[in-house]
């Protein structure tokens, strides 16, 4: 189809003489740019992610012409990077000498005490109260419910919210 027939295609969407898919051609033209983009975000993994991108696009034949191949390449590469880091976060170490948090003895250092206090103070008052009564004073949910005049379900809900917020604070 010619441009006169109403279909305008960018040069990046035309296959090369060797039959290489158009996105693979675009990758070869923009490889240095893509690797530099990845190096800014993922300095140690940029080359590997760029290689994974090549493997993904090498045989990809888009159903319609690609209007912005650089944008598509960047999106594919960034999605691959995100998948890679999600996968590595879920992996369990196979090293027998690796100690999980449960296996480690926790040193009650000053830093940990300060972090705990900051987390506690960052909680809203209702959540802080229930959390402190359980984790500091060692009261059961039933005892907290009786002491505060609320239901055990309310205590459970507040504890769940407090623990989730604490986990978010630790992750950030």
Explain the overall architecture.
The chain has seven helices and no strands. It is mostly helical. It folds into two domains: 3-90, Rna Polymerase Sigma Factor, Chain: A (Orthogonal Bundle), CATH 1.10.1740; 110-171, Orthogonal Bundle (Arc Repressor Mutant, subunit A). The relative contact order is 0.08.
Percentage of residues in DSSP E strands: under 5%
Structural class: mainly alpha
Detail the poorly predicted runs. Answer: 1-17
| Count of spatially separate domains | 2
CATH topology of the largest domain: Rna Polymerase Sigma Factor, Chain: A
DSSP helix fraction: 55-70%
Order of helices and strands: HHHHHHH
Fold blueprint:
Elements (H helix, E strand, L loop, with lengths): L21 H20 L4 H12 L11 H22 L19 H13 L2 H11 L5 H8 L3 H20 L1
Helix pairs in contact: 1-2, 1-3, 2-3, 5-7, 6-7
Produce a short descriptive summary:
The protein is mainly alpha-helical. The protein is built from 7 helices and no strands. The longest helix is centred in the middle third of the chain and has 22 residues.
Which tags fit this structure?
172 residues, mainly alpha, Rna Polymerase Sigma Factor, Chain: A, Arc Repressor Mutant, subunit A, 2 domains, 7 helices, disordered N terminus
């Amino acid at each position: 189809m010619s441009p006169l027939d109403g279909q305008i295609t960018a040069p990046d969407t035309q296959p090369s003489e060797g039959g290489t898919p158009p996105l693979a051609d675009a990758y070869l033209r923009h490889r240095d740019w893509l690797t530099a983009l990845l190096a800014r975000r993922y300095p140690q993994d940029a080359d590997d992610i760029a290689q994974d991108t090549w493997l993904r696009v090498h045989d990809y034949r888009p159903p319609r012409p690609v209007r912005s191949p650089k944008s598509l390449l960047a999106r594919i590469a960034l999605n691959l990077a995100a998948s890679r880091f999600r996968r590595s976060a879920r992996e369990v170490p196979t090293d027998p000498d690796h100690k999980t948090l449960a296996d480690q003895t926790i040193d009650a250092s000053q830093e940990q005490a300060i972090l705990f206090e900051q987390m506690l103070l960052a909680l809203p008052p209702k959540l802080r109260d229930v959390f402190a009564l359980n984790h500091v004073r060692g009261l059961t949910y039933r005892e907290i419910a009786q002491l505060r005049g609320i239901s055990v379900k309310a205590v459970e809900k507040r504890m769940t919210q407090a623990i989730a917020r604490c986990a978010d604070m630790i992750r950030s």
